[in-house]
Amino acid sequence: MKPVAYGYVLFYTSAAAFRAEKLSGAAGIPGARLIPTPRHLSSDCGVALRFMLEPGKDESSRAAMEQLLHDKSVPYERIVAEQGEQTP
Question: Is there a smaller number of Cβ atoms within 10 Å at the N or the C end of the chain?
Answer without folding.
Answer: C
